Amino acid sequence: MRHVISLLVENKVGVLARITGLISGRGFNIDSLAVGETENPALSRMTIVVRGDDAILEQVRKQLGKIIDIIKVIDFTDEEFVERDLMLLKVNVPAGKRGEIIEIVEIFRGKIIDVSQKDLVIELAGAEEKLEAMVNLLRPYGIKELVRTGSIAIGRGTK
Amino acid sequence: MIKTGSQILVDALIREGVEFVFGIPGGAVLPLFDALFDSPIKFILTRHEQGAGHAADGYARATGRVGVCLVTSGPGATNLVTAIATAYMDSIPMVAITGQVKTFLIGNDAFQEADTIGITRSITKHSYLVKDIKDLARTVKEAFYIANTGRRGPVLIDLPVDVTMEKCEEVIPTEVELPGYKPRYEGNIRQINIAAEVVNSAKQPVVYTGGGIIASECSKALLELAEKGNLPVTTTLMGLGGFPEDHHLSLGMLGMHGTAYANFAVTESDVLLAIGARFDDRITGKIDEFAPHAKIIHIDIDPASISKSIKVDIPVVGDANNILQELIKHIRFVERKEWFQKINSWKEKNPLSYNNADSVIKPQYVIEQICEIAKGNAIITTEVGQNQMWAAQFFTYTKPRTFLSSGGLGTMGYGFPAAIGAQLGCPDKIVVDIAGDGSIQMNIQELSTAVRLNIPVKIVVLNNGYLGMVRQWQELFFSKRYSCVHLNGNPDFVKLAEAYGAAGFLVEEKKDVRPTIEKAFSIQGPVIMDFRIDPNENVFPMVPAGQAIHRMMIGTMA
Predict the structure, then answer these.
(1) A interface with B, Cβ–Cβ below 8 Å
(2) Model pTM greater than 0.90?
């Protein structure tokens, strides 16, 4: 099962290595990982997406809780949360197809951030499925390059 | 006051009450050794960094205090790795200080550089690379706090040489602030009440305890609980000494080489109360058949230990001592006549035993003699393998911190340096390392340390000319194809002892066993006793790997 884990960590050297070491040491592949400072520059927020057996992930979650530099571990799997992923995509523009492509981008409420003779660079933010849906629609035109930040997530409402 | 980094470190160690530091100097720690030169801390110079680490570990296990070791960068640090991993697996409080190359050279493949933090990341509870002298005093305070609280473990401080030479105004930290580290000590009262009810209504309960009883200093509370509730107790290897084995409620050790009656009792139990133990694979055997009828209560300080391998019905997270004090209040005496009849009949039918003989020396006989002669005043350390299991089975442990053994990592070469550390911490005890002829050679160089400082540890070599436990597995599971287990070319241990300046005795006949041990115990210095034991003796009972624990091999198969 897919788990979105959010970690509040001390913004220190080596924290990321501890976390990835712990997860990879148990044989999990990290689907995505995003790190950035929070409103407090001494703290960072990491959002990690991993897939795996629930019992083993429960163990990983507990082990993460034991890392001294990790202040809080949240597994969003059983909670209400919103999730966004940012993608930059360079798509090939075959002759006469520019209009079609722009239409697709508009439907997804993406942005075109660079234009050249033969390609377009598109920016799109959203949940994973939305990003994948657009990628599938653009695939026939030829995707030259694709970059994603990985998911970031935040809980809904106040607790 | 303006001080150098070295002085700040040494003064911080003194504030932590450090009595001994174990290690070896080298280039990157020269300023530290200069500061140690006129400090009250006693530095124990070992002959290999692994020996220093195990000695610090043995000191910690024997005294309950934090063991401290100090080594240089690069090879000094990598030599320490096995000792750190050993302490980590057994949750032993340790602070390891490693020298590092100058800050600006880090990552430069400098002379004697190793990425010590990277190498030890998965075998330390926490680690620090101190790049700013202003962080040093606080780091030491945090390191000792982390090492010796919660589920204990080793903490590493990597210290670049330039930081130890810089100067700054010393600021003595008063409090530790670690927002990400809040160990839980008080157990949930509701869970404790439920646990008490379940235990009170149990018809066939078993208490299964581990190293947590010793770490939490609660063997008295455990005894009180067992007696008040009339509950049989079995311990893991790490838990030996946590419950008196001469008590009528003791089932001895369980697991792969545990007693038959402990394994039968756990298998038939309806309630299993686990305290400070982690359901390790050497205990559970085949998971599906482990305590299949039991409701499982698990008391542990580490939430990650709960339901890790065995699904737990009633978890209680917290310090064992706190929880036991509360639990005892609610426990009632229940007679459980049938259950004890059953246990007693297992004890009668399948006691721990061996075929004693007069023609050969049996290792079990040697251990029984040590136990009798030491009269409860001994600390036993072991190496790993057959020697360790016989020492666990045939010595009667009645007090905590008297059995020191590498349980989790299974480190051969642990016992002798650990004995040195234990003896320094407990000068009035008889400290005996029960070794095999294979393992003793893994850290034999520490004989120099013991002789030079006149540390009177006694080494018992159960010499069978084999890597015995591996030979046993090859005999039982690999059709007696003895591959690379015969130790041809063993040294003459008596001459070896003498070469180092220690006493050495060779014992080839059973009648000489007792007098030799008595003589060795009366010598005020290190002694090696080389007992030529029956080379074919095996450790039984034995649960084959992956098998259910009640399906054990009871006696000699060969």
Answers:
(1) 9-10, 13-14, 17-18, 21-22, 25, 55, 58-59, 62-63, 65-71
(2) yes
